[in-house]
Amino acid sequence: MKPVALRSQDENRLGREEPSDVMIILTQAFCPNGHNVVRRDDVLFEGHPGICLVVRHQEFSGDVVLSPIHGDHTRVGAPQTLVEGTKFKLCCPECGVELPTIAPCRCHAGGELKGLYLDKNKPNGQTVAICDVYGCHNSKVLDSLDVLSELLPGDEA
Asked: What CA–CA distances, in Å, run from 50 to 14, 45, 103?
């Protein structure tokens, strides 16, 4: 499924487009080996299954389920012992492969944006990138490496 960015065609007095009420919801996202990580029907976010990833950091390794709604920072399963700013590995829950680095993150904790593919044929550039630092909410949705949606510090969900 190809993501679509929709915007209002109306412009305000400054010549900028008005924000739209469009939400980007991931209905599928694949690890480098083609496993769909949008799989947790038992953990729903506004009725949508969550993105399940294995998070690994020192003594902790376990499932964390993220909201599939871009801009919603809700997550389930992260231990209370993880401290904001902790860098960790993000892995596929089915095969254990670590997600590839797409780009450095703009956060101050030295994070990297890790990629999930929106198509099983991963090299096509349709990618979701999320930061590997606990508490960093930077993320991007890319189509052929053009940014469709980006959440940076200070953006509100």
From this structure: 38, 7, 24
Helices (H), the chain: none
Residue 7: the pLDDT is 30
Q: Assess contact for 84 and 128: CB atoms under 8 A.
A: no
Prediction pTM value: 0.75
- Listed by start position, the domains of the chain span 38-151
**Torsions phi, psi of 122, nearest 5?**
-50, -35
Question: Which segments in the chain show pLDDT lower than 50?
Answer: 1-19, 147-149, 151-153, 155-157
> What six digits make up the tokens of 112?
């990297």
Beta strands in the chain (DSSP E): 38-45, 48-57, 60-66, 75-76, 89-91, 101-104, 112-117, 127-131, 139-143, 146-151
Residue 90 phi, psi (nearest 5): -110, 125
**pLDDT given at position 49:** 95
Tell me which residue of 93, 88, 96, 113 sits closest to 37, measured CA to CA.
93
**pLDDT per residue as tens digits for the range 118-134:** 888 766 668 888 899 98
Q: Which residue has the tokens 């993105």?
A: 51
